[in-house]
Amino acid sequence: xxxxxxxITTCRVSTPEQMENNSLDRQAVAVTDAARKLDVIIPxxxxxxxxxxxxxxxxxxxxxxKEMIDYCKKHTNVRYLIVHExxxxxxxxxxxxxxxxxxxxxxxxxxxxxxxxxxxxxxxAKLLKAxxxxxxxxxxxxxxxKSIDGQTTALLQGRYTFRPKPxxxxxxRTGVHEIDPLRGEALKKALIDVATLRKTPTQALIxxxxxxxxxxxxxxxxDKFRPMLIDPYYAGIVEIDKQVKVRNVNGLHEPLxxxxxxxxxxxxxxxxxxxxxGPRRDGNPRFPLNNIVSCNLCV
Length: 299
Prior knowledge:
This protein is α/β, with parallel strands linked by helices. Helix content is 42%, strand content 12%.
């Protein structure tokens, strides 16, 4: 009896709009038709799909690709990795051919269901494939530039287009968050108490964890509270220092504290040493047996 060969598949979307437009369903139909033509079976556990980043330089760390390679190592009768089109698999010229060779080492050919002209393996197909992934990589760069430009413009206007900070909720205007009537007031009191030296950060955190701020949520820990104490957003400043680098002291949202109170908090927390060192990897050297024996009552 002839051995039945298998194929694995991956279907990917890069935007929420593509998910809403049933892009995954269309891709699934295409790869299923290709599997039928190739006379291979797609097993239930050999299918990957979802919103997975395919930016240049990040694919070597993609969890789904690692899982696919491991699957091919384990199942030696896999002959194809079927994808809808080049840009649904990779958006990096260098990494596309790297992963094609990597899968080839395990006897698996990357097959493009809706671009059959790329599957012949001749020089013409390689040229077309390089051109397709080059376009996809350029599309990624353009999308990133538009995103950065849009975020920069919003921040310069005083709008914060990211997820609302603790104590705030989305408002009627995009990027202009409003104070949460319950959580915002509780956090405001905690910030002012520390800024005016009425309470220590530890005391303020205890009060905050006893207020409406944690209603229905886990209690806040000091490692999360400390950054909030010095966050300029609560003084009306919108600031990002990552891929986008903008600081605008005239944020459009209503602040919880004044700029002077924020500066007082920064001075206080900058000069304040951390008292909690956290767990040691080697355990407590004063009690070396605690990594070897345990107490049944304590457990």
